[in-house]
Amino acid sequence: MNYKSLIAQNIQKHIDMDASQIEKLIEIPPQPEMGDFAFPCFQLSKVLRKAPQMIASELVEKLDKEGFESITVSGPYVNFFVDKSVLCKNVIEKVLEEGDNYGSSSVGQGEVITMDYSSPNIAKPFHVGHLFTTVLGNSLYKTYISQGYKPVAINHLGDWGTQFGKLISAFKRWGDEEALEKEPIKEMLRIYVKFHDEAEKNPELEDEGREYFKNLEEGREEEVMFWNKFKDCGLSDFQKVYDMLDVKFDSYAGESFYNDKTDAIIAEVDEKGILVDSNGAKVVMLDEYNMPPCIVEKADGATIYATRDLAAAKYRKDTYDFKKSLYIVGKDQALHFKQVFTTLKLMGYDWADNCIHVPFGIVKFADKKLSTRKGDVVFLEDVLNESVSKTLDIINEKNPTLENKEDVAKKIGIGAIVFTYLKNHRERDIVFDWKEMLSFEGETAPYVQYTYARGKSILRKFGAIEGEVDYSKLNSKEEFELIKLLSNFNDAALAALDKSEPCMISRYVLDVAKAFNKFYNNHSIAATEDSAQKNARLKMVEATCQVIKNALYLLGLEVVEKM
Ligand code: ARG
């Protein structure tokens, strides 16, 4: 049972407003004394031309009281206190019945959402920022599926551009074939860095790089051969990281995919009458929007990042007919996306309004620099491995006899990193701090996972639940708070989609874990003598574990049964 929609239907019978609109207005008050749900009457006041206080007191007389302990008025608010034993029973039974599906819905009605995320650059060194877009995208992708949408995960690989010319030049001079096979990204980074160092002394190298890229765009055999090699090797390296995170994509159509589609898009921009010549380059002027021009073709005739993004946006609309098209990319590219979307709008494409840049903050390490040009890069794979091995150390210290230690360490270690990314609003910068991240206390993944494992160990200890279950005996403050939280999972998932903020889910699951531990620290299940009450408590523990598992799944984390 969803209380919000139940209350909305109840109210709708007495006022002239859509139930779905009413439902959106219903709030969850910050303090339990103010009710479990509250309906503010401010909005109605405009329509009905009456004071909100008046509306509230009139409404409360008419409402159906069934299922509620009481419905009261507090100023402009109608406050609903639900019948606790009905709520407890309904929520717990619903969670246990729906299992892994609890929290999902069909509100998306199969609407297509294209999602551009991860999208690392093959030739350039990549950074922990790409892990940010990867985990954000993966979490939103899973959440979209859970709410009945059809998301399309697109990895818009940076597999085209002048940097490939530079890489070809560098490889011909200093490349090591064997190293490229073994550790492709490291080898590419090595020669890329060397190229930049050498080019500072010898600027002609830059021209050579440009020349090679031009040849590549023209499809010359040798350049294409090199490019393919770099691309395959690079991808296989990324794949290791995706496997560790269990991230999958529906499409790997990266920048090179649009190579044969850029002529058409440039011609179209021209046809629409917005293409201007600027010192030999072809641009779209955006002064009116207080932006520098969007360059679609460079003076040497080569295309650039923006050209390929214009082609990609149109291709996605034509291919998938998306309702929304998300670009989960760092905030430093905000201007780029504004330019691209505005250009699309000027081309007459109203769907450009549904193209949305979802930016995120910068990632730093408390104890390491993350510069990419100089070569002292922190590699994604190394970061993940380090987290796993640090977790294994902790396990060896705390619980050396644990079974499947390696597997547990993997799930906890990787989960800790993923959670660190998703814990706060995405535009906030992140400073990685191993100690904090891997702590079993505080707002961390290990804390949530530990809570789950604790719940599971309780369930193992007491075995199968037999005999009467009396939910009306879950009458403590702690129990009711926990169960109310369990009932709000779907809201958290929808809020995450509404704002493209998985932190709505991570905050939620932290709240569930905290509420559970509060219960557990105040009430002993072992000492519960009344077996109908004990059984109800065990059911509540089971439901809590299920919700934690489902919420962590939406964040891209796995639970462990023991830790
Ligand atoms: N490869 C780019 C980068 O690493 C991100 C690409 C984002 N997607 C896009 N359609 N531009 O900076």
TrEMBL record:
Q: Does the keyword Chaperone apply?
A: no
InterPro entries per UniProt: aa-tRNA-synth_I_CS (IPR001412), Arg-tRNA-ligase (IPR001278), Arg-tRNA-synth_N (IPR005148), Arg-tRNA-synth_N_sf (IPR036695), ArgRS_core (IPR035684), DALR_anticod-bd (IPR008909), Rossmann-like_a/b/a_fold (IPR014729), tRNAsynth_Ia_anticodon-bd (IPR009080)
Chemical reaction(s) catalysed:
tRNA(Arg) + L-arginine + ATP = L-arginyl-tRNA(Arg) + AMP + diphosphate
In this chain the DALR anticodon binding domain maps to 448-563
What EC class does the entry list?
ligase
Q: Where the protein is mainly located, per its record?
A: cytoplasm
Quaternary organization: Monomer.
Q: Which family does it belong to?
A: Belongs to the class-I aminoacyl-tRNA synthetase family.
Tell me what this protein is called: Arginine--tRNA ligase
Protein's organism:
Clostridium collagenovorans DSM 3089
